[in-house]
Structure formats: C-alpha cells, structure tokens
Amino acid sequence: MATNKKITELTELVEADLADDDVLPIVDISAGQTFKVRKSTLASALAGVASLSATTPVAVDQATGSVTVSIGTVPISKGGTGATTASAARTALGAMEDPLTTRGDIIRRGASATERLALGSSGTVLKSDGTDIAYGNVAATELSGTLAIANGGTNATSASAARTNLGLGTISTQASDSVSITGGSITGITDITVADGGTGASSASAARTNLGVAIGSDVQAFDSDTAKTDVAQTFTISQRGTVTTDNDLSFDLNVTNNFTCTAGGTGTLTFTNITVGQSGNIFLNNSGGHAISLHSNTKGDANLASTISTAGSYWLSYYTPDGTNVYVVTSAVFA
Length: 335
Description:
Largest sheet: 6 strands, mixed
Helix content: 10-25%
C-alpha cells in the first residue's frame, strides 16, 4: 500500500535503474496543474540540447553540470523575514536589539525607542520623574512618614522627639567643653586627675594623700579637744611650753617662747624674728658676772643691764607689743 513520503525519504534512482516507461511528475506553473512524463519522452525532448543556461533564479555550472536555483528574499507573508541580515531580520520581525554593553546596565524605553541605561553611582537609587527613569539621590523633601527605630530610624519628625524616642537626656545637647551633670551617677570610669578637678583616686585615704591632706602626716586627725587660736579656750589640764637652751644671749622667737641661758662671757641681750604679741620667759645664769648690754630693740629700765651683769641667776620676762621692740623686766638676783 502506497504511503505519502517526503522527497528526502524516497530512494534515489540512478540512470541504470530508469526504464523507458518510468514516469516523472512535471508541474505546469502557468496552468497550475501536475502532469506526468515518461523517461523516453523527456529524453527525446532533451535530445540535441548541448547546454543549459539560465538567469536567476537558475544558474548552471557548465564544468560540473550542477544547477543552482536562487530565490529572492522571502517576505514575512510567505514565512520569511523579508531581510538578508540577522539585524535586519530582527528589525523586520519586531524583535528587540540587545543594547546592553556593561555589567549593571538595564533597558528602558526612551522617547521613541528602547535604550540602554547605565548603572548609577554607588548609593543612588532608580527614580522616576513621571516621564523617564534615571538614577539619583533621594532628597529629604521626597521622603514622607517616619522610619521606625527597629529599622534604624528614630520614629520622629523633630530632633527633640528623636532624642526622646532614643532615650537621650539633656546631656546629649551639651557642648563637649561645657557639660553640666545635675543628677544620676557615673561608674566604671578612670579616676579623674587632680589637674582636671578630681582626686586621682578611688578611695578616701588615697584622695587625701593626693590632695596633700593625709591624716597624721599632712593634717591632724579630728579631735573635739583640739585647741583653736581664734576662739576663747578653757584648759582642763596644765599647758607647758618647750624650754630651749640658748647660751649666746640672742634669742630666736621663731624657736619657742621660753629659754634658759648660761652666759659664757660678755654679750648683748638680743631678740630676732620678733612677732607682735609674743611673750615668754628667760632663765639667765650669769654666775660669772659677765657684762651684759642691751640691743637697741631690747627695752628695759635704766638698771636692767647693770642688774643682770652682776653675778647671779635671774628670771627675765619679755613681751613685744609692736613686732619691733621687745620689753624686758627682771627679777632680783636669786640667792
């Protein structure tokens, strides 16, 4: 039973296989009909034909006998592209050219055709002006609403509200060189140096040492019985002054108030570092009867010098009311 096959599926016959009564199909283009022709009839018709020549679309290679059939551009309506290049074919078929050239490029529609939009600068975003799209920065005026704290914002539209939402107090608005702390506490910091208004210490005793008020070496420990120099005092036990030995008849009032002196020869009764209001006593042993005179600042009665120059022991009492002169009185000679 015969079946329909494509030409490429048919077995090819060589000349030796052709019989005179074999037929070939012939298409009459002008009549639009298909006829058959016997091999013998075709051979008779071609007898005496020395060569075959033709113009486009048929070309004959006389050397090889090969025949090339060329056809024109097949229009889209006949299943073609109507073009002779890939680019023209895409254009004819309405296919889009690839305008991209660089990593990050995107395609956009321009005023009349598709076009390439290059990647924008770092940090920019793709924006629309209502007509075209382009990369650009987002202006503050283009933002609306608030960004939640959970998303890295402040959930506020003012600086004060932002500080409140973020838990920032008034110290957050103070200048770094003018900070005022009126409450709370500060912990876990390095000790503030004395030069910066601190103590440079973390304990009271170390602070006193750094400030030069160490108890026992720099200052005296508190004692409710400590005498004061600017108020009236009532003493409940005897008070004694230190007695200093000074045998040169010159008494430094910065040393003490009370002295004892054994004259080893003649000399001048003299006082140095005289301070207003100071008074005291001198026990003078002049058993050798050495001549003693008075310094110009040492004041006594007319007989003071001669009295204490006589051999014996004397009790001298002195007082300076002006810080310049020292007034001296003496006892009679002791037996």
